[in-house]
Amino acid sequence: QPVSEEFQNGEGFGYIVAFRPNGTRGWKEKMVTSSDASKFIYRDESVPPLTPFEVKVGVYNNKGDGPFSPIVVICSAEGEPTAAPVDVKATSLSVSEILVAWKHSKESLGRPQGFEIGYWKDMEQEEAAEKVKTEGNESSVLLTGLEGNTLYHLTVRAYNAAGYGPPSTAVRAATKKSPPSQAPSNIMWIQDGSHVSLGWEPVRPLANESDVMGYKVLFRQEGQSNSQVIETQKTSAVVLLPDVGVYIIEVCAVSEGGDGTTSPQIRVPSFS
Predict the structure, then answer these.
(1) What are the residue boundaries of the Fibronectin type-III domain, all occurrences included (predicted)?
(2) Do 216 and 180 form a contact (C-beta atoms < 8 A)?
(3) Quick one: residue 207, left, alpha or beta (phi over 0 = left, psi -120 to 50 = alpha)?
(4) Separation in Å, CA 215 to CA 72, 175, 186, 199
């Protein structure tokens, strides 16, 4: 903290910043000529990160030198991370999502404040990479909003206040193909009391769409927003309508890339 004017005792007031690596002899001194100064920055690229220094600050004016403060020990700032994350894995989850996971190398000198994930399409240059940052000790991130049926390259690097560490070796992952655009067609249904038997023609995906893994039958009472779901690998299903009222029934295909287009709605009255 600066010395107030009443204690400067004359013209030409300034500060003497003295410092030395911890455990050494001989002080290096720097003059700070502004009486209002409250900090001094010493730069030396040869000083390793987190090196402890003994520091004291003295005062002077035109009459001579004044006293020094008590000695305190401070450390030089840490360096940027020096090792790349290891064991980086990228897993495609859907048509637009890839999960990236990694481990932080214990050999890195600079402690990471977080990680930066860079990703770019197969036909693009790495310089065009999109970037996502995490904070803290996160070891995975879910990338969203990606293009379907697209191969991505991905790297991970640690960062802290001093800068960025080296990137990991690039890994690759391809997003899933888009879900089928065709809806189940020619839906037929037969009602027997509260049971409705459904049947439909199979969905044939296009070449750039995901294979059909099964179907979902969604049904809800008219006026309600939440649907109940029956999953099946067949092109038929039996639905139980538990309450009196009109039910809305829809069918869609299920694929790796997600759910496909839903069929036109069927309105079925229930008298149970």
Answers:
(1) 1-79, 84-178, 180-272
(2) no
(3) alpha
(4) 71, 21, 15, 11
3-state secondary structure of 178: strand
Residue position matching structure tokens 């809305």: 248
CATH number for the region 185-270 comes to 2.60.40.10
CB 252 within 8 A of CB 260: yes
Query: Does the domain made of 5-76 have the CATH classification 2.60.40.10?
Result: yes
Percent of the chain with pLDDT over 70: 99
Summarize pLDDT for 78-120 with one digit per residue, the tens: 788 889 999 999 999 989 999 999 998 877 777 889 999 999 9
CB 98 within 8 A of CB 117: no
Q: Which CATH number fits domain 86-175: 1.50.10.140, 2.60.40.10, 3.90.1230.10, 3.50.30.20?
A: 2.60.40.10
